[in-house]
Amino acid sequence: MDNKADESYHTPANFLNELESKQIIKRAGLTVTEPIITKSPSEAISIAQKTGYPVVLKVVSEDIIHKSDSGGVVTGLMNSESVGQAYSSMIAAIKQNHPDAVIDGISVQPQAPPGVEVIIGMTRDPQFGPAIMFGLGGVLVEIFKDVSIRIAPLAREDAAEMIRELKGYKLLQGYRGKPKVDTDILEDWLLKVSELAMNNPRMMELDINPVFAYAKGAIAVDARVLLKDDN
Ligand code: ADP
Ligand code: MG
To answer: How far apart are CA 22 and CA 197, in angstroms?
Structure first.
């Protein structure tokens, strides 16, 4: 594994971590669960106390893109003892799964109440420009690829159509006792992501996965931005 081709293949892509990515989408007007980075179990405990329980711990590392696959996400922490334990076992799990990963720290963030999970994304096509994606989260996107896509800039009507044309649209309309989701706010978010992509030509990809959608409002619990290489 020491030839040039392999080296370039392993060059880390220009991904921003969750903290940086959420700052960008927050500035664009989206609501996020804000992570605060910590460097020790005791620091994580003191941040958790300020944040208020329940909290979520996540690994912060440029080398780890899919955090939960690596043991890098723990939800449902209700007190300082469980935060301290989760911190230490997360570091151990990451060291085991990714011995070479550089760990910048462990972030602490409030746990959002359960909602309907949706995904908002953007991929910049070299020819057509930013393509905005909307889909339902979890297995629906992974197995059924139930997503809709439009090229930016989006008008409100485009955003409304993107939501309505999903095969799983019913799940947003109050399904089996679940509340009807605030689709107006999801339209707003699609328009804001469209604007963000139009105004930031260096942003190559954005993945907000998942967004928790509620009867009123929505919150992004994870986000990832890919920037264009400088060279
Ligand atoms: P990754 O996609 O890198 O594996 P996520 O940050 O998306 O990691 O976390 C994995 C899952 O954990 C999410 O899909 C969500 O269900 C849950 N989760 C993550 N952060 C929160 C949070 N702040 N509040 C509630 N649930 C969360
Ligand atoms: Mg995610």
So the answer is: 15
Span 59-117, pLDDT tens digits: 999 999 899 999 999 999 999 999 999 999 999 999 999 999 999 999 999 999 999 99
Q: What is the distance in A from the centroid of ligand 1 to the CA of 73?
A: 7
Assign domain 15-32+113-227 to its CATH architecture: 2-Layer Sandwich (3.30)
Distances (CA, A) of 95 to 46, 59, 102, 126, 179: 24, 11, 9, 38, 41
Return the structure tokens found at 37: 């980075």
Stretch(es) of the chain classified as CATH 3.30.1490.20: 36-110
**Ligand 1 centroid – CA 162 distance (Å):** 24
Full-prediction pTM beyond 0.85?
A: yes
Contact 30, 220 (CB under 8 A): yes
| 133-172 confidence digits (pLDDT tens) | 999 987 667 777 889 999 999 999 999 999 999 999 999 9
Q: Which ligand is nearest to the CA of 56?
A: 1
Range(s) within the chain of domains with CATH label 3.30.470.20:
15-32+113-227
Q: Any residues with Cβ below 6 Å from ligand 1, and which?
A: 33, 56, 58, 66-68, 73, 75, 109, 111-112, 210, 221-222
Of the candidate CATH numbers 3.40.50.300, 3.30.1490.20, 1.25.40.10, 3.30.230.10, the domain formed by 36-110 belongs to 3.30.1490.20
Nearest to 150 by CA among 209, 191, 103: 191
